[in-house]
């Protein structure tokens, strides 16, 4: 049933669950619901009213038919929150003081039971059933290597270290990008982090871990085709690819989603991934200064050449 006490049971159970999960709580909190029974027939019967009866830990019937639902939560030092619903015109100071004192006694009794269940307080470390997150900063220039062709490297890391997922921050304009590793085994997460750092260290010494250079040279001519261009990032509107690193170091272009395939691409997610290599043709420059590329044009040209042969 749902009652004032079931609400306060969720406070106690929620606190215990947080402690069991390893959340570093500074205080243990418990709650209890108080009810009230008034002698409502005294005035009609022409006699003095009986003393109000304050109930501790009310049942659903007492909650529904009683005069008060007074929820009080806190610890040994005081109250952290309370809620008061009454069905009468008001409460006397004496009745409210009595309710608060009974709530305090009930709260202390519940707290003693909770501390007995977990005498050492919150867990020092998270249990194996709780997912964990570890982050590592990777040089922006090495994101493609971390992902691998078609996502092969990143999938291999997820499988090898039994990760739930590995996410790379969308914003890669700075010198590093944050990679978030998630899983249930903290030791495996730390081992994967060490592996990634090892991969980066092996390339930073050769100068491959620095940020991507900013291109300021001449632009390639329109209709020129570039083969095996690496996909740097994937957006909802298209993908950015890196052109010939020897001839055009630091030059990137945009392949709009409408230029990715000869057929309509309805959802870019899963269709193409960072690290994948594709062939593109130069279409020109957009109004906002981006180099426009097309994969669809290359597919059409290759198909036409095959048909002629």
Report on this model:
By secondary structure, the protein is an alpha+beta fold. 32% of the residues lie in helices and 27% in strands. The protein has eight helices and twelve strands. The protein has helices at 4-21, 42-45, 60-65, 93-117, 143-147, 152-160, 186-204, 296-308; strands at 30-37, 53-56, 68-75, 78-86, 132-139, 165-168, 176-183, 225-235, 238-242, 252-256, 277-285, 291-294. The strands form three sheets. Strands 8-9-10-12-11 form a five-stranded mixed barrel. A hairpin with a 2-residue loop joins strand 3 (68-75) and strand 4. The chain is elongated.
Question: What is the strand and helix layout of this fold?
Answer:
Layout: H1 4-21, E1 30-37, H2 42-45, E2 53-56, H3 60-65, E3 68-75, E4 78-86, H4 93-117, E5 132-139, H5 143-147, H6 152-160, E6 165-168, E7 176-183, H7 186-204, E8 225-235, E9 238-242, E10 252-256, E11 277-285, E12 291-294, H8 296-308
Parallel strand pairs: 10-12
Antiparallel strand pairs: 1-2, 1-3, 3-4, 5-7, 6-7, 8-9, 8-11, 9-10, 11-12
What are the key terms here?
309 residues; alpha+beta; four-stranded antiparallel β-sheet; 12 strands
């Amino acid at each position: 049933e749902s009652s004032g006490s079931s609400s306060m049971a969720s406070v106690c159970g929620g606190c215990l669950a947080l402690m069991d999960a390893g959340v570093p709580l500074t205080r243990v909190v418990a709650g209890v619901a108080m009810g009230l029974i008034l002698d409502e027939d005294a005035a009609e019967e022409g006699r003095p009213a009986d003393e109000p009866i304050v109930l501790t830990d009310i049942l659903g019937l007492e909650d529904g038919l009683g005069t008060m639902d007074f929820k009080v939560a806190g610890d040994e030092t005081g109250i952290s929150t309370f809620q008061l619903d009454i069905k009468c015109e008001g409460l006397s100071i004496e009745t409210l003081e009595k309710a608060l004192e009974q709530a305090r006694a009930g709260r202390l009794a519940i707290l003693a039971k909770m501390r007995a269940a977990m005498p050492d307080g919150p867990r020092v470390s998270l249990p194996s059933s709780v997912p964990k997150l570890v982050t590592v900063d990777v040089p922006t220039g090495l994101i493609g290597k971390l992902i691998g062709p078609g996502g092969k490297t990143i999938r291999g890391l997820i499988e090898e270290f039994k990760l739930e997922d590995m996410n790379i921050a969308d914003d890669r304009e700075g010198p590093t990008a944050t990679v978030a590793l998630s899983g249930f085994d903290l030791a495996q997460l730390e081992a994967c982090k060490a592996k990634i750092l090892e991969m980066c260290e092996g390339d930073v010494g050769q100068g491959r871990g620095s940020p991507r250079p900013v291109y300021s040279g001449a632009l390639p001519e329109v209709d020129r085709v570039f083969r095996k261009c690496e996909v740097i990032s994937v957006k909802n509107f298209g993908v950015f690819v890196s052109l010939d690193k020897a001839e055009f170091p630091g030059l990137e272009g945009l392949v709009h989603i409408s230029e990715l395939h000869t057929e309509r691409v309805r959802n870019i997610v899963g269709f193409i991934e960072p690290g994948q290599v594709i062939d593109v043709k130069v279409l020109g420059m957009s109004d906002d200064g981006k180099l426009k590329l097309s994969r669809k044009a290359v597919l059409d040209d290759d198909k036409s050449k095959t048909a002629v042969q």
